[in-house]
Amino acid sequence: MKTRELMNLGLSKPATKVAVACCRDARMSAAAIRELIPDIAGNPGAYVDDDVWSPLAAELLRAVAARESFVPRQTPAPWRQWGENLEESSVAQLEAAAELPIAVRGALMPDAHMGYGLPIGGVLATDNAVIPYAVGMDIACRMRLSVFDLPADALDSQRAKLRNALSRETCFGVGASFRKQYRRSHKVMDADWSVSPITQRFKDKAWSQLGTSGSGNHFVEFGTLTLDRAELGLAAGVYLALLSHSGSRGTGSEVARHYSHLAMDKHPELPKHLRQLAWLGLDTAAGQEYWAAMELMGEYAAANHELIHRYITRNLGVKVIAEVENHHNFAWRETHDGREVIVHRKGATPAHEGVLGVVPGSMATPGFVVRGKGNEESLCSASHGAGRVMSRTQAKKTLTWSDAKKRLAAAGVEVMQAGLDEVPMVYKDIFAVMDAQADLVETIARFDPKLVRMAPGGERPED
Prior knowledge:
By secondary structure, the protein is α+β, with helices and mostly antiparallel strands. The protein has 15 helices and 17 strands.
């Protein structure tokens, strides 16, 4: 039997490995094995002396003993939320994270919604341990804003030129890569990709996707940046700007997947609701390996944005006069409450005192350039966007492009390509989100999208 089928019968990854070997020795039909495996899983003690299935029984009993050894902490780690009426599942996920023996303190941002393990918008400080799923699947996903020396009215007078730049110099979607003759190059590919067997194995894939964007909520868009006062080295006024949102692509996803499962294998004692919060100690080889891979993915994600902005800037023949960049989906070594901790920000923006960041809204609502206030209660964090109020599945079932186009037209936004699951109606009110975190960040500029490109999906707006 295949590994996937055995796992579908309810076996864990370690038990599946043992079961595969047992199946080879059993000389039984697949149908007979399908009937037998659930019985062994439900009553492993009855098979401890079986000539063929005793190794699987022993592994299952070991896992049971490990789960029974888990002792939840008597008092959850302290945490606080920003914003009201947050999605109940996201609150429950942060509450679960506070049960971990390694948890020190947490925070929940006003854009919170459910994720794997830690909610998106979740912040968690841990003691000398990193949780791969609390970093996220798209490691080091980030924002980058470039302000150009073109007048803002170029959005009208040079619309065809801007549209052409987005068409030629960006590439979106799962598995998307540039044709070989257009492949990008960057010094990040000269880094040590042997820090992890995963980064080493997927280096070629990473190179093929260098300078590209993923699917989902990733975008590259032109818009206007409005400064009410002198900031960012610029005078007050309205400027043409480019904003991108993307991460570490397929390789980052492979790193996240591998080490998340490794962490779960190493912590069979965790109850089901905590399984995706399994951790790797930073004093272990596996923890150090993941940390090195995570940092490499951070460099790689930054390179993707650098190349997107470099090629668009070159295509337009313009000059960048100001820049802002920040990332989320990462873990940092920081000092809080007088001790060193590992701060995971999954879909949350670093907001240390004076640190700049970008908090986007949706394709038809503004985003904001912000300056952190260094609020310790949030572990110096803020939201990374507006946050979803509707799942992708629900959006595709209940929304229409007809309604979306009306919203886009009212906002003066042209969408070159996007999925129905990313239209404005699936997001929270960005103004309410910003009001809820007024004690975390100061708003210094407003970005209004006007020409948007995202991954294709569902019906396209221009159809």
